Amino acid sequence: MIKDDNVDETKGRKKAEGTCENSGDCSSCRGCGAPKITGKNVGKICVTHYRGTLNDGTQFDSSYDREKPLEFVCGAGMMIRGFDQAVANMEVGEKVDIHLMPEEAYGMPDPAAIFTIPLEKLAGSEKLEVGQRIALQNAFGQPFPVTVTAKDDKTITFDANHEMAGKELNFSIELVNIK
Questions:
Q1: 60 is catalytic
Q2: N or C, fewer C-beta in 10 Å, the chain?
Q3: Helix, strand or coil, per DSSP, at residue 129
């Protein structure tokens, strides 16, 4: 896996500029400079239904379609920062629509997360096709998703950026319960 202080090696993606996976909690913060998420729901288990869409209206995710709400600890870095911030002060039963810039979601694509290796270094790579998503393992044996972006007779190129990196995202969020 790529060695870069701005790449989260457990997830294989670049951390967004100005975001903090620890919600600014200085006891475990890496000093990214993002302000701490505050609100009455921070630290509580929030149960939400949501629908995520791109700017063209294409739906990319929905808890409604799964018929099961999402549960997460608000402000703990389990969710993308903009989603966490939106839920931080919501009331049970409240619905909000939010628009997130890439920096509030999955960040911008990182050119360093695109890498090429010889086909012979990865067993089975001759069967992979451009556009295919697979999981590789980092130096610690943890899987991380990549997309095959190019392939020739000798090499294969992977993109380890999150597939939503660089995209503006829209969410309709309903706070169902707080535990």
A1: yes
A2: C
A3: coil
Instruction: List the catalytic residue out of 37, 80, 156, 173.
Output: 80
Q: Which among 106, 144, 158, 171 is annotated as catalytic? A: 106
Specify whether 115 is catalytic. Answer: yes
The residue with tokens 């706070």 is: 175
**pLDDT in 10s for each residue of the chain, 179 residues:** 222 334 444 334 333 334 444 434 433 344 456 789 999 999 999 999 999 999 999 999 999 999 999 999 999 999 999 999 999 999 999 999 999 999 999 999 999 999 999 999 999 999 999 999 999 999 999 999 999 999 999 999 999 999 999 999 999 999 999 99
- Long-range contact list for 141-149, CB < 8 A, 24+ apart? 142/9, 142/10, 144/1, 144/9, 144/10, 144/11, 144/12, 144/13, 145/12, 146/12, 149/114
Q: Give me the count of residues in the chain.
A: 179
Does the annotation count 80 as an active-site position?
Answer: yes
Q: Per DSSP, what are the bridge partners of residue 9?
A: none
Q: For 3, how many CA atoms within 13 A lie in the half-sphere containing its CB?
A: 2
Task: List, as one string, the DSSP characters of 132-167.
Answer: -EEEEE-TTS-EEEEEEEEE-SSEEEEE-S-TTTT-
CB 96 within 8 A of CB 90: yes
Residue 106 known to be catalytic = yes
